[in-house]
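Sample pair:
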Amino acid sequence: MSILLSLVVALAFPHAQLSAPPAPLRAGTTWRATLVVRPEPRGAPTVLASPRSGKAVRFRSTRVSPTRFRVVLRLPRAGSWRLSAQIGSRSMRLRTVRVAPLPPPTSPLPGATAIRVCGGAAIPYTQNGLALGFGSAWVVCTPQRLVQRITGGRILASIRLPVEPWAIAAGEGAVWALARDGTAVYRISPATNRVTGHAGLGASGVYLWALAGAVWVADDAGRTLIRLDPAGPRVSARLPVGDGPSGLAFDGTYLWLVSHRENSLDRIDPATNLVTRVASPLSPPETTAAERVAALAGSLWITGRGLDLLRRSPAGAPLGTVEVRPAAMDVVSDGSSLWTAAFTPAAARRGDPVAGELLRVDAAGAVTSRVAATRRLFVNGLAAETGSVWLYDGVAGLLLRLPT
């Protein structure tokens, strides 16, 4: 009778066991665990991680066999965490783990300060995940559905969005976020660090910019640049442009747009929305892609996959080329100089935004400094302001500030 009773009890009360964590288990790092539950549960259990103080975090499991489940855990801060499994209506204690703090971040760019931010970005990689404005840097945390605000070397706010943000812009009174192929732009108030509105696009957007009194969204599939009135926010105009709009710059009078499939350059008058084709093709579209543009000292500077840094006049005339080996992935201006990130040779072949070095170029087109990366460095955003250039590695979870 005692054996039968033990069997009945074992079947009635499931047993759960979670595999041991890596040593040391550090805050914010990934722990891929195996959860074994017997007898076989009807549904996939949930693992609940509870700190000594603060909110608990839930992690879903994925079934890999009738009684085995895969759980990917990421405990956000150091300290003691109690883990339990939710199996149907029953909660079962698993184990208590001690999470160590991460060591201070180090910069892969010599001379730059590293700030730890959200990480874990994966293919497809954003290259428009950083914006500067309102005294802060802003980064997209795509897998976490967050925008983080960084001020004074620390994360000031983490702002939750209903979508996975892909591109971000700061200006025209707010911060603006867009998902990849997103159908709405979300407005974030820098005063409250909250989402305060959104504008439906009626199309799928890829990139966005806040310039010249408006917010602009690239409708890649529709060959259209969508203009938003930031006061609404609402769509106020749709401008037909080139195939694959991907880079936009403002010189104080006109907007300049490059489209990467046909390698065209368009001039846009923000007062009238008039679009004028200036040059096409800027380079052979079969082997190169003009994806980014910056305006400095009366010239337009254009780059992208397979390209060096091209210099053009406002009339579209070639004014020279700055050699960037093997190619440049972005170009930004701090008002007196240009900054461009150069692919590593392997990344250029794959198309991944991994930088081998950061180059500073003066208004005459001369390279005045080079900073080589000491380890793998993803460029998920590049921005510059007077006195600083910023780079966001959304894979490693690092925001870098290089004084200039």
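The first strand starts at residue 15 and ends at 18.
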